[in-house]
Amino acid sequence: MIRRVLSVVVFAGFFVAPALADQLPIDGNYGNEAGCQALADPTSIADSKIIVTAQKVDFYESSCDFLQVLTGSYGRSVVTALCAGEGQDWISTYLVAPDIDTPVALHFTMQGSDEFQFTVMKCE
């Protein structure tokens, strides 16, 4: 009887425990101009906003939670993210690299799509 109860408790605990996600090795919040404005003024609404934290990237109508962050040399990372927006879910992989010309900027390139790239600056 005790063994059965213990099994149920352990089994239930397995499903209750939150998933641990990796974090991008950055300090503070990053964004494009509209994203930094939205951080400074939460009532600001711009459809071009991009906000990046260590755990996620938020766009106007979608958001991507970082699941895995693999960091390499020169500050570059490969980020696998679980994204949701407009009633759909998908997985995205980003190559994240510091901007060569501006050390407080990060350049994101979505793998598999050379067309979707963006650069964010550290928000003050």
Question: Got a strand count?
Answer: 8
The tally of helices reads 2
Shape: globular
Q: What percentage of amino acids are in beta strands?
A: 35-45%
- Into which percent range does the helicity of residues fall? 10-25%
Q: What radius of gyration results from the CA coordinates?
A: 18 Å
Strand order of the largest sheet: 1-2-3-4-5-6-7-8
Low-confidence stretches: 3-18
The structural domain count equals 1
Order of helices and strands: HEHEEEEEEE
Distance between the termini: 59 Å
User: How would you sum up the major sheet?
Assistant: 8 strands, antiparallel, barrel
| Structural class by helix and strand composition | alpha+beta
Describe what you observe in this structure.
The protein is an alpha+beta fold. It has one domain. The protein is 19% helix and 40% strand. It has helices at 2-16, 33-40; strands at residues 30-31, 51-52, 56-58, 62-71, 77-85, 88-98, 105-110, 117-122. Strands 1-2-3-4-5-6-7-8 form an eight-stranded antiparallel beta barrel. A hairpin with a 6-residue loop joins strand 7 and strand 8 (117-122). It is globular, with a radius of gyration of 18 Å. Mean pLDDT is 86; it is low at 3-18.
